[in-house]
Amino acid sequence: MKLLFAATFILFLLSTFDNADSSAYDKIVAHSRIRARKEGPNVCALQQVMGTKKKYFSTCLLFLYPLGQVVSPFTDIKLAPIDNVYGSLGIVKATSTQRYSDISKLRPEIEGSGSYTFFAPSNEAWELLDDDMRNALVSNVNIELYNALHYHMANKRYLTKDLKNGLTVTSMYNDLGLHINHYSNGVVTVNCARIIYGNQVATNGVVHVIDRVISAVGNSIQDTLEVDDDFTTLTDLFTTAELLEKLGQPGHYTLFAPTNDAFDKLGSDVLERVQSDKEVLKALLNFHLLDSVQCSEAIMAGSSYETLEGNNIEIGCDGESLTVNGVKMVRKKDIFTTNGVIHVIDDVLVPDSAKQVMELLGTSQSTFGDMVSELGLSSEMRADAEYTLLAPLNDAFTDEVMSMDQRLLKIILENHVLKNKIVLGQLYNGQRLETIGGKILRVFIYRSAVCIENACLIRGSKEGSNGALHLMRTMLKPAEKTIFEILTENGGFNSSDLNLLKSDINALRTILLYHINNGVFIGGGLEAGVTNLLKSLQGSNLRVLFANNTVQVNSVKVPEADIMATNGVIHFINQVLYPGDIPVGSQDLLMLLKRLISYMQIKHRRTMLCACNFNVVKHTFFAFIVPDVTKVTRVIQGEPSVTKVTRVIEGQPSVTKVTRVIEGQPSVTKVTRVIEGQPSVTKVTRVIEGEPSITTVTSLVTDKHVLLESMCQWLHITYLPQKLMNALVSRPSILKYTTIEGNANLDSERLTKLIQSEFDLVLHLSDLENSS
């Protein structure tokens, strides 16, 4: 019990050293402490960076036993007691630093009273030190080595949680600063040297093991550039851009510094052009600067950082070296200064803002760039003018395109070059853009896409010094003709077909309006994989789906889409569309409607779903509907039986027994209809609404047209062309019902025959039209 109590008590004492919130470093190594508990005392998890030889140890806790022994609360194995700073150097295996402390006469100081923080280089760190420098330190142990070790120390205890990002710790050598960076990934650096083993508590301070020997820092980035002959070109450019003095002021910067050789590789013509434009030069230089200190030890693979120019660069790791934008170019890293760090690179980083418009093209648009150059378009672009490239990807240049006459291909490519610089944020719906060939292109903005004519933009837009670049998957096809002109010239819509359509335009208008939407919708502008509801001019919705680069409307595939017209766009389909919500009262009537639609469109191999901007008068296609309640004769197997059925549909009705109904509340009418064979009679009564009352009504109508309108209402015919009205009135079968006695004798059997003759009447109307 005494042993357990002592261990618990010492654990409490040590926790007082770390009672603040855990730092990122502490959180990173917490799993190693758990591992140590599981595997035994004084066991630390060894961490290694993939692809490198770098290894880092986590923190292990030791506990003091009152009798001078140290034990782990998880085992009874005896451990070494905590020691002073000098002794702790041996505990953490920084034996080279311990030895140099001994021979430089530093040992008495770090064994004595005080509270120190010692950033102790590991044994490997001393081996990595340049031989000449290490020999110079050791040969002059009384001064240089002592001062060097003092620069690794602070006269105050700092645990890793106390080492805040951007903190400058005063060293014990001439009060020079030690620059701390504490990153979100848990990495803590001192002058870019990484703490690989932290928080080794000593009786007179704390020891942190670091991965390199650090040197005193006294120069700024400006000072470093000015005294190094490898940076004369860079220094001149910073001076020309009036940015050099900024690098001499306090701050936290990271500079990717190209050498003189790097600028030579850029080319004298490019360098001269950049120097001639001060804003472009500033953009180029600021693209090499970060507004933060990014030591190589803290950089995670694929990390993206915003430059002072405004765009991002990606910094990664390649073994022991660094990469910038995926290219291994860092010659020397972590040159630490008073206001940041320098990484030396072998290539110049050129941002888009410093490039001319043709230089913005990448490998995925190389074919477009080659063709623009070969056909002479690039040479026609003036150096003092601005342009916008609408560049199709390489896949858009099919064999058919490449086999075109070069004069025609040049005209097509001219449609992909705009006269002015238009960046993505400047595009708006309805905008009209002029090409260098004089064509006008229209802009369409959708919820998730921006389209120019038939082609929609994809990710990858760029802005250069004299222009902009936008990428698209397909070639642009500007509109040349109206929708009517396209349909007239199309082989599927010849003159005889158009004449047939015009023969009864009012009757067809409803169906045709269902094929038209008042707007321009490009296939690529629709949200992929989502059913888009487009309201037709008829009033019903069209269900349009864009998936796998194919457009479907009402589940019908569109074989030819995005035919641009000056007043809209056409999508050709292979079958007629008609609203699915047209009410049909019976299967027989449905078949009659299908026959009617088939007749009207029998010669149409194609029809259109067109979106246009012109006004079209909305009409309704006439539809036939069977009355709600009918007395019928049906053949039922077996012995007949009489059944009275009451069916409630909606509302509070009144049921009226009538000879015919002109208007008002629904009615019950008896109709005798012979279907087949010897019938058995079943009386069926349907209640439409409310409690029924039986009333006999006889209505006398003498006007033939009024009577015919009443018949239409009874049949739910919502539209009847005037010529069909006149034809019906003039027929003998109708005339008898326009007299008083004929009206009184109106029965369901004759009305049924009228329903069955509707198709003949349409044909009769067609004959009348043709004869006239």
Architecture overview:
This is FAS1 domain-containing protein. One of its GO terms (biological process) is cell adhesion. The chain has 772 residues and is of the alpha+beta class. 30% of the residues lie in helices and 22% in strands. The chain is built from 27 helices and 39 strands.
Keywords:
disordered N terminus, alpha+beta, 30% helix, elongated, 22% strand, single chain, 772 residues
Distance from N terminus to C terminus (CA atoms, Å) equals 119 Å
| Biggest sheet descriptor | 7 strands, mixed
Average of pLDDT: 74
Unreliable segments (pLDDT under 50, ≥5 consecutive)?
1-20, 34-46, 56-78, 582-590, 595-638, 640-703, 735-746
Number of strands: 39
Q: How many H/I helical runs?
A: 27
Our Rg estimate from Cα atoms comes to 44 Å
C-alpha geometry? elongated
Structural class: alpha+beta
Q: Provide the helix percentage.
A: 25-40%
Strand order of the largest sheet: 7-6-12-11-10-9-8
**How much of the residues is beta strand, in percent?**
15-25%
InterPro entries: Adhesion/Biosynth-related (IPR050904), FAS1_dom_sf (IPR036378), FAS1_domain (IPR000782)
Pfam family, one: Fasciclin
Organism: Amphiprion ocellaris (Clown anemonefish)
GO molecular function, one term: cell adhesion molecule binding
